[in-house]
Amino acid sequence: MAAKEFRAVIERFADQGRCIAHIDGRAVFVRFALPHEDVLISIDQPAREEARFWTGEVKKVFSASPFRVDPLWKEGGPKALGGGIGGADLCFVSLEGQIAWKKWVIENQLERLGKIEAKCRVERLKFDLENGGLHWRSRIDLLTNFEGLPSMRKRESHSLVPISTMPLCSSPLLKEAKKAGIWTDPLPKNAPLHFAIGSGEEEGNFYIGVGGKKVAGRDALIQKIRLDRPYRYEVDASSFWQVHVMAAQTLAKCVYDLAMGFAGNLAWDLYSGSGLFTLPLGSLFKRVESVEQAPAAVRMARKNTEGEKKFSLSCAKVEKALPSLSPSPDLAVADPSRSGLGREVCEGLAKRGVGALVYVSCNPATFARDCGYLKEEGYRMEFLRGFDLYPCTHHAEVVALLVR
Predict the structure, then answer these.
(1) Would you call 98 helix, strand, or coil by DSSP?
(2) Residue 298: DSSP 8-state
(3) Helix, coil or strand: residue 369
(4) Sheet holding 5-9, edge to edge
(5) How far apart are CA 188 and CA 147, in angstroms?
(6) In the chain, count of helices (H) and strands (E)?
(7) Does domain 99-132+246-403 match CATH 3.20.20.300?
């Protein structure tokens, strides 16, 4: 069936990298659109007449926004321009426009889901200005297709599209992948590919894996940041670490600066991973209690803290561990997954006497929802900052300080 096509004027930003238009009274969420543009929209199929809303993609632009640029990565852009690969849904938006979009999303989600009116400055890193929004990923996951070629999924589909490079990936990591023959040598069919790189200039500080097996590099990567002093971490190549090559430094500094105002006896580090925030908190507090549910990350955190008695590291889900933590910390830091804290944890923080919380989030929607829960528990927002640590995508990072 041929796709339905409609000409419409785009009204406003939305989340998930889409904008909104209305066609015959029905809301349509449109990819590769910008507010106030006059465009031709191709509606995704099937498009049921009884559906509350449709989704679609811009096929032609009659009147362009000043934020529109040629896609920084053609394959990740609109299908009408030869694109179709997922993972770079804002590659057609200028860096200035991406900041405006993400600022709108954070503020809108807070107002809509959290019932909180707040202005949020979203910062662009110098690294991304210098690199035009490309080459920032320290980790990427691909798949090989039925021919053994490195591939990514087609947008809105499970189909795989072969690629010969990945422009969002760190340049040094791309070089290592090339040396390992990822783009040229025969690879196993239908196999996962995982690339990761550490920081600093240490030789061999990267990982190239095919089908779950290392083919080049090392299993544990060295990551470094500098705050009041240098901090060094070993991180399992398959464990979580901040994806942007400058994210660990950027977020650790923001958290550290906020934590300085509460330095004292006890801090909690929740969803602590391999200890990115745990170690710097140890410079400000006499005792740090951290909780992380991934065993591999906890093993690395124990190695990174070098057995110092001031650190107590628990391998558990946060909601299960809260009752066993020492009550009334001077500060809690939380950096959950995209699913956020949830009501149970928000209520638990209040019950356990947390007076100040630094909340680090990669999902403005669940962040806003949780801020609403925390507001019900008597917390108020005293600091809010956004960081565009995911250029060319709709994702954004948020850091907030909430106190009661």
Answers:
(1) helix
(2) H
(3) helix
(4) 5-9, 38-43, 53-63, 26-31, 18-23, 12-13
(5) 8
(6) 9, 22
(7) no
Please state which of the ranges 50-54, 101-105, 138-142, 399-403 shows the lowest mean pLDDT.
50-54
Say if CB 47 and CB 26 are below 8 A apart.
Answer: no
Residue count of the chain: 404
Q: Give 196's strand partners.
A: 139, 207
- Alpha carbon distance 84, 1 (integer Å): 19
Helix (H, G, I), strand (E, B) or coil at 119: coil
Q: Which two tokens stand for residue 243?
A: 């994806």
Active-site annotation, residues: 362
Residues linked to residue 288 through DSSP beta bridges, in sequence order: 267, 311
The whole-number pLDDT of residue 48 equals 85
142 sits in the region (left: phi over 0; alpha: psi -120 to 50; else beta) called beta
Tokens coding 4: 């339905």
Domain boundaries, the chain: 1-65, 99-132+246-403, 139-222
Per-residue model confidence as pLDDT tens digits over 52-85: 899 999 999 999 999 999 999 999 999 999 999 9
List of residues 6+ apart from 377 with CB closer than 8 A: 346, 347, 349, 350, 404
Give the C-alpha separation, 162 to 160, whole Å: 7
CATH code for residues 1-65? 2.40.50.140
The encoded tokens of residue 374 equal 């925390």
